[in-house]
Amino acid sequence: MRKASLIQFARQLQVSKASSSHCRSFSSPPSNNKLFVAGLSWSVDEKSLKEAFSSFGVVSEVRIMYDKDSGRSRGFGFVNFSREDEATSAKDAMDGKAFLGRPLKVSFALDKVHREPVTTRHSNMGTTFTRSR
Questions:
Q1: What are the helix (H) ranges across 34-100?
Q2: Mind listing the pLDDT tens digit for each residue in 99-109?
């Protein structure tokens, strides 16, 4: 696919998402109590991740994402705090810090977007992408 087509496709997605009332836009505010934590070692489990973040406040939930085929960690997870200020403190302190030998990348988590499947159509004018309705 040509670069111009990709740019046009991205612009169309932004316009359609911004005009759709049931979808969030690309610039929606992050969840202030939920942190996205990337760069996790495969040996990290939920208990050790909770212990690492609990010094910043009350951790209400920890989830590490695992590969469904291999069962191995995908290297990222989520940490929920009970208060926004605790999550902010943890993000500021832990972003870039080494944890079990690997530097962490910590940011506020974005809400999951449920999207419709994309279909492609090929013609002599190029490839077009449409969302199923």
A1: 46-53, 84-94
A2: 999 999 999 99
